[in-house]
């Protein structure tokens, strides 16, 4: 039963807030209407409140599945401080404590019961006679091997929906690309749950990609022009953090290296120095930054390309937390791609890693608004160019690419949306190769429809279409290329498409460098 007090007064009473953050209200409404949902909200977006508040409005106890013991404890402490009856259960507790919590649970004395996924299976019998009003799965991306933080215990959560068919099952995460979102819903047995996607857009972050030539010179010039500013340079290897830091120091600017090879004390003290503005620049591996709350980081440089877009987004997200302008530079070189591919090869989820890497590479090669491409990756459609990325600031020359786009979309449709990028290019160019003939593709209507294009150029134009959200690559399904709703608008509703003229753009890039 839903309490009679309106939601807003409960928000004030229990949490002391006067209004909701974006998306909280819509999510809470769905939960109060007993819907299963998947919510994707950026870090700091206020996820916990979305399940905590409904938990207090329903009779009975809410189960919250949370992967990190420290996080669990923090949340429970904060709830208790607000006078809410909450407890957590995990393997770090001794049996006496565990039994005490279980008896509170059995007596219905808890509003929220936090539990680690590993402990959950053993507890399932205890839940049978309880009034479980809500099940919240926090950090839900851990269920997917397609996500970046896979936790095997999460894959056992699929039974929850069958044990509690009437109870809303709500999943939350800050990081899930489209494939992971689909996987979470499938595995939790809530395939039709609505997805709430809060905006990942951070408008104050300027996004720039530069060719990875003469990186040191470029970096020294950049930081030299921004004295007093705090920034982070991310490198791929420990060794390169050390050598780059010392080269920056040699130029008279203070910087410290940070990586997992340093002692805990050393890392702590570097971190403190940075947070308290005693050291302006950190040259680090991706080990640096998690949980660091520094509001005035003015720039982030990626000396090497990150291995996926999730990582890139997280790392640039450490700049400009105060909402003021921040500058992010990614150095892109093909050598990095090769190196990262080598790392990925032979790993247990090699296909996924390589697919994600290719998506990162496409972002770096994009010739249309970077922010549109970035947000697209997380399933968010931005309709206008952002005006705050390198491409928007210095756009390449464009041409009306509607006809070409229609040809590509119609080829994708005629190939039944099952073929990958390479085959689509082959078919459009009227390639004579055996794979095309084996499948009889020489007989489809768009065979050879773009025969004037060089292979790599056509591939690049199709990548632009992907980055504009017209086509979508399903990496976990052999990279098949599919049409999005936007493609249908182009095919059937005369929507026009602008494409960047790569020949022109490449020539200009050569002139500059
Ligand atoms: P997430 O888990 O999404 O990273 P949290 O749930 O930890 O975010 O919330 C981030 C911060 O926002 C917390 O300090 C929380 O108390 C605060 N917060 C949550 N909801 C609101 C709200 N409606 N108004 C103001 N602050 C809020
Ligand atoms: Zn832009």
Account of the 3D structure:
The chain has 513 residues and is an alpha/beta fold. The protein has helices at 7-15, 24-32, 47-57, 69-81, 95-106, 117-127, 160-163, 178-187, 215-224, 238-250, 264-275, 309-316, 334-344, 350-365, 370-377, 390-393, 402-414, 421-428, 434-438, 455-467, 485-492, 502-512, and strands at 37-40, 61-65, 86-89, 112-115, 132-137, 169-173, 195-197, 205-211, 230-234, 255-258, 281-284, 297-302, 326-332, 398-400, 471-474, 480-483, 498-500. The strands form four sheets. The chain has a seven-stranded parallel sheet, with helices on both faces. Strands 8-13-12-9-11-10 form a six-stranded parallel sheet. Strands 14-17 form a two-stranded antiparallel sheet. Helix 17 (402-414) packs across helix 21 (485-492) and helix 18 crosses helix 20. Mean pLDDT is 90; it is low at 504-513. The structure holds adenosine-5'-diphosphate and zinc ion. Zinc ion binds at residues 369-371, 385-386, 389, 391-392.
- Tally of individual helices: 22
Structural class: alpha/beta
What small molecules does the structure contain? adenosine-5'-diphosphate, zinc ion
Report on the biggest sheet.
Answer: 7 strands, parallel
Describe the protein's topology.
Blueprint (H helix, E strand, L loop, with lengths): L6 H9 L8 H9 L4 E4 L6 H11 L3 E5 L3 H13 L4 E4 L5 H12 L5 E4 L1 H11 L4 E6 L22 H4 L5 E5 L4 H10 L7 E3 L7 E7 L3 H10 L5 E5 L3 H13 L4 E4 L5 H12 L5 E4 L12 E6 L6 H8 L9 E7 L1 H11 L5 H16 L4 H8 L12 H4 L4 E3 L1 H13 L6 H8 L5 H5 L16 H13 L3 E4 L5 E4 L1 H8 L5 E3 L1 H11 L1
Parallel strand pairs: 1-6, 1-7, 2-4, 2-5, 3-4, 5-6, 8-13, 9-11, 9-12, 10-11, 12-13
Antiparallel strand pairs: 14-17, 15-16
Bound molecules: adenosine-5'-diphosphate and zinc ion.
């Amino acid at each position: 039963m839903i309490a009679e007090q309106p939601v807003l007064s409960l928000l004030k009473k229990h949490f002391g807030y006067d209004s909701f953050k974006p998306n909280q209200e819509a999510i809470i409404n769905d939960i109060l209407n007993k819907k299963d949902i998947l919510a994707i909200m950026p870090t700091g977006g206020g996820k916990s409140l979305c399940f905590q508040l409904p938990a207090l409005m329903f009779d009975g106890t809410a189960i919250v599945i949370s992967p990190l013991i420290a996080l669990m404890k923090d949340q429970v402490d904060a709830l208790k401080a607000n006078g809410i009856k909450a407890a957590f259960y995990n393997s770090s507790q001794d049996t006496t404590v565990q039994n005490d919590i279980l008896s509170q649970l059995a007596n219905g004395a808890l509003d929220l019961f936090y539990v680690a996924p590993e402990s959950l299976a053993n507890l399932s019998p205890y839940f049978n006679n309880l009034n479980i009003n809500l099940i919240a799965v926090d950090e839900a991306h851990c269920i997917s091997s397609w996500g970046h933080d896979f936790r095997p215990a999460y894959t056992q959560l699929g039974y929850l929906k069958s044990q509690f068919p009437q109870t809303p099952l709500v999943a939350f995460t800050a990081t899930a690309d489209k494939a992971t979102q689909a996987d979470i819903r499938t595995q939790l047995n809530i395939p039709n749950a609505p997805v709430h996607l809060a905006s990942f857009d951070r408008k104050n972050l300027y996004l720039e990609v530069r060719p990875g030539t003469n990186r040191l010179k470029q970096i020294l010039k950049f930081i030299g022009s921004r004295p007093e500013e705090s920034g982070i340079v991310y490198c791929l290897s420990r060794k390169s953090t050390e050598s780059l830091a010392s080269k920056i120091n040699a130029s008279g600017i203070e910087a410290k290296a940070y990586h997992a090879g340093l002692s805990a004390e050393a890392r702590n003290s570097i971190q403190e120095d940075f947070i308290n503005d005693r050291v302006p620049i950190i040259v680090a591996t991706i080990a640096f930054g998690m949980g660091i709350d520094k509001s005035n980081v003015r720039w982030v440089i990626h000396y090497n390309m990150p291995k996926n877009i999730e990582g890139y987004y997280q790392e640039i997200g450490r700049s400009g937390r105060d909402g003021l302008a921040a500058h992010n530079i990614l150095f892109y070189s093909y050598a990095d791609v090769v190196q990262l591919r080598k790392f990925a090869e032979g790993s247990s989820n090699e296909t996924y890693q390589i697919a994600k890497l290719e998506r990162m590479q496409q972002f770096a090669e994009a010739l249309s608004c970077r922010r549109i491409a970035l947000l697209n990756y997380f399933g968010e459609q931005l309709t206008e160019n952002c005006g705050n990325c390198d491409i928007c600031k210095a756009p390449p020359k464009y041409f009306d690419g509607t006809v070409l786009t229609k040809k590509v979309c119609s080829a994708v449709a005629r190939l039944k949306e099952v073929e990958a990028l390479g085959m689509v290019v082959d078919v459009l160019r009227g390639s004579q190769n055996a794979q095309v003939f084996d499948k009889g593709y020489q007989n489809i209507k768009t065979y050879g429809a773009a025969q004037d294009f060089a292979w790599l150029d056509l591939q690049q134009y199709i990548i632009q279409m992907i980055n504009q959200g017209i086509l979508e690559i399903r990496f976990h399904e052999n990279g098949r290329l599919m049409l999005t709703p936007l493609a249908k608008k182009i095919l059937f509703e005369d929507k026009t498409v602008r494409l960047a003229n790569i020949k022109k753009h490449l020539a200009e890039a050569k002139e500059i460098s």
